[in-house]
């Protein structure tokens, strides 16, 4: 007669479900589709002239180009806090380049980043690139011209998400899926 367990272990459905992995070809195709959209978003920024040629307002989605901002590696969290508390931030794979995520915060970037779901998406993204020996160069950029008013900041963040269709933002999963998280 087999011995019964005093403390039976619950069966986990997670351990039994297979881990699906994107193929190298699928990853390349996924990135190319995003790249094509983001290149068209960069190229198609028609600026309507005005009678008096006023400078564009600095807090408009059309005036912010995440690819021109100073990049920091993801270990910026290990350094002392720097910068203002209110900002927009952009996670970029500088290899292609691709804008992967747009976010906003009124906490310091370090405080926001340490408690963020996007962190695991990026780790999975980098891991898959390494599995296929593909180049990857993920960095983060900060834009400190964001409105202090949260409603205005969220509106600007939303405009940027829909303009660039950044794949790690949940609003864009309808176009790109969510192969690196959830």
How would you characterize the overall build of this protein?
The protein has 182 residues and is α+β, with helices and mostly antiparallel strands. 35% of the residues lie in helices and 13% in strands. Strand 2 and strand 3 form a beta hairpin. The protein starts with 12 loop residues before the first helix and ends in a 6-residue tail after the last helix.
What is this structure's SSE topology?
Blueprint: H1 13-16, H2 24-43, E1 71-73, E2 87-93, E3 98-105, H3 109-114, H4 118-131, E4 138-143, H5 150-164, H6 173-176
Along the chain, the helix and strand elements come as HHEEEHHEHH
Strand numbers in spatial order across the main sheet: 1-4-2-3
Large-scale geometry: globular
Q: How many E strands?
A: 4
Radius of gyration over alpha carbons?
20 Å
Low-confidence parts:
11-18, 51-58
The biggest sheet amounts to: 4 strands, antiparallel
**Overall pLDDT confidence:** 79
Question: What is the CA-CA span between the terminal residues?
Answer: 43 Å
Please report which band the strand proportion falls in: under 5%, 5-15%, 15-25%, 25-35%, 35-45% or over 45%: 5-15%
Continuous helix count = 6
Structural class: alpha+beta
Residues in helices, as a percent range: 25-40%
Protein traits:
four-stranded antiparallel sheet; globular; 182 residues; 6 helices; 4 strands; alpha+beta
Could you give a quick summary of the protein structure above?
The protein has about 180 residues and is of the alpha+beta class. The chain has helices at about 15, 25-45, 110-115, 120-130, 150-165, 175; strands at about 70-75, 85-95, 100-105, 140-145. The protein has a 4-stranded antiparallel β-sheet with strand order 1-4-2-3, sandwiched between helices.
């Amino acid at each position: 007669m087999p011995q019964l367990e005093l403390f039976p272990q619950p069966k986990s459905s997670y351990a039994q479900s297979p881990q699906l992995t994107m193929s190298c070809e699928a990853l390349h195709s996924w990135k190319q589709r995003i790249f094509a959209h983001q290149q068209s978003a960069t190229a198609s920024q028609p600026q309507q002239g005005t009678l008096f040629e006023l400078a564009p307002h600095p807090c408009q989605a059309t005036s912010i180009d995440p690819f021109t901002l100073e990049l920091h590696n993801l270990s910026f969290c290990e350094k002392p806090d720097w910068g203002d508390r209110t900002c927009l931030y952009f996670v970029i794979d500088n290899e292609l380049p691709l804008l992967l995520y747009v976010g906003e915060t009124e906490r310091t970037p370090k405080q926001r980043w340490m408690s963020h779901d996007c962190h695991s998406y990026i780790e999975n993204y980098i891991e898959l690139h390494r599995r296929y020996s593909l180049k990857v160069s993920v960095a983060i950029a900060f834009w400190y011209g964001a409105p202090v008013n949260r409603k205005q900041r969220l509106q600007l963040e939303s405009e940027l998400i829909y303009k660039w269709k950044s794949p790690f933002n949940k609003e864009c999963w309808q176009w790109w899926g969510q192969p690196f998280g959830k």
